[in-house]
Amino acid sequence: MEYADDRYHLRVEIQGKGCKLPEEELVRMQRTLESLGEAVLDFNNAELTLNVIHHPRSDVYNVEARLRLPGRTLFSSDEDPYLDSAFQRCTRKLIQKVETYKSQPDGEADARARQQAALGSAIVAPEDPANGQLGQAVQAGDYRAFRTALSGYEEWLRKRVGRWVQRYPNAEARIGDGLLLGDLVEEVYLNAFERYTQRPTAVAFRDWIDSLIDPSLKLLLKHPDEERENASMARTLREMPAE
Question: Which of 80, 109, 164, 221 is most buried per CB count within 10 Å?
Answer without folding.
Answer: 164
